[in-house]
Amino acid sequence: MDIRDFRLERYMAQHEFSAPFLLCSSDCETLSIQDLLTFEDQSYENFLNLKLGYTEAPGSPELREEISAWYNAIDSNDVIVTSGAEETIFIAMHVLLRSGDHVIVQMPAYQSLHEIPKSIGCHVSPWHMVEKNGAWHLDLEILHDLITPNTKVLVINSPHNPTGYQFSASDWAEIEKICSDHSIFIISDEVYRGIEHNPDTALNPMADMSESALSIGVMSKSLGLAGLRIGWVASQNEEFRKKFQAFKDYTTICNSGPSEYLARLALKYKDQIIKNNLSIIHENMDILHTFFKSYADQVTWSAPIAGSTAFPRLVSDTPVETFCDKVRKDTGVLLLPGTVFHVETPHFRLGYGRKNMPDILGRFEQYLQSRI
Ligand SMILES: Cc1ncc(COP(=O)(O)O)c(C=O)c1O
After folding, report:
1. Which atom of ligand 1 lies closest to the CA of 89?
2. What are the pocket residues of ligand 1 if the criterion is a CB atom closer than 6 Å to any ligand atom?
3. Judging by DSSP bridges, how do beta strands 21-22 and 333-334 pair with one another?
4. Residue 127: CB atoms within 10 Å
5. Which pLDDT score, from 0 to 100, does residue 281 have?
6. Is the per-residue pLDDT at 371 higher than 90?
7. pLDDT tens digits for 226-251?
8. 299: domain CATH number?
9. What domain range is 15 assigned to?
10. What distances in angstroms separate CA 167 from CA 17, 185, 188, one per listed residue?
């Protein structure tokens, strides 16, 4: 397998555990094992008594039941649990695609969403997001134009990392129709589901809407539990699921029992966890609105409407990587340059799902003041 370095993950591997102040994390505030175990009586004893043998290949029935409760048309048999969304992406692409196939990918994107199809030998057409009048946009007319008779898969991500964009319900339904008309399978990365800033605008998962679609979910983002390494694929398509399960025998076979136990518990109480994280997001968004008004001569943004990341733009000729390096060296604050998303404009990612964001933003602010 010939695959390029995953720029974002290489960057985070280099700096995430050495830079003291993270201002670019995509995940929400995390919880301890103890926090999770206090949700339910008896869970402390149950967790300590858990046997550490192999677990059921598709995930424990209890966990799959809890995951399927987050969908409408999906039942527990339609869910396969994985070691994070990253494993879901890897397997789904290998199951659905062959060398020479054409794939359309919403861009910018988490790199595996376009890099894995490329490593399989697919032709990848980017469906570019554009920033106009203070908002991010995706044009469905352009999607129409990108489709060829050989297009097998459309890859979308909403809520979107890094822009915080979310499709409108009408565009979402239209995408499902376009793909159905052209027999295109939809890979819908929904790992930021649950933290739509206005919960009334939350979209139906694609896996609920179509049998030729899969939804990717994970514990990492809206629930803040990335260390569990538990993700999943949900799809009504039985043939796809069979192939996915068979491929998983060559990656992780089954998942970590302790992680599955804790994931089930967290999902049972997900409304409470997400409510806390959404209130952090709302408080941080208020602070960010003021911040971007104050520093509009140095950084601009199209305010995100969903998720826990934004993609502001530097107003300067300084290359964005140099800027992020300097901010990190002078202040210890870690930003993520847009170059890791293969973006040529001077954008950088900012994360606002964590409680300590206002303090860290203050350090960044001091840096911007020192440039005036
Ligand atoms: C859009 C998107 N998909 C998938 C992933 C992978 O999630 P995980 O690290 O939990 O496997 C990420 C992580 O940043 C992401 O942003």
Report:
1. 4
2. 26, 84-86, 110, 157, 161, 189, 191, 218, 220, 226, 231
3. parallel
4. 19
5. 98
6. no
7. 999 999 999 999 999 999 999 999 99
8. 3.90.1150.10
9. 7-32+271-371
10. 33, 18, 12
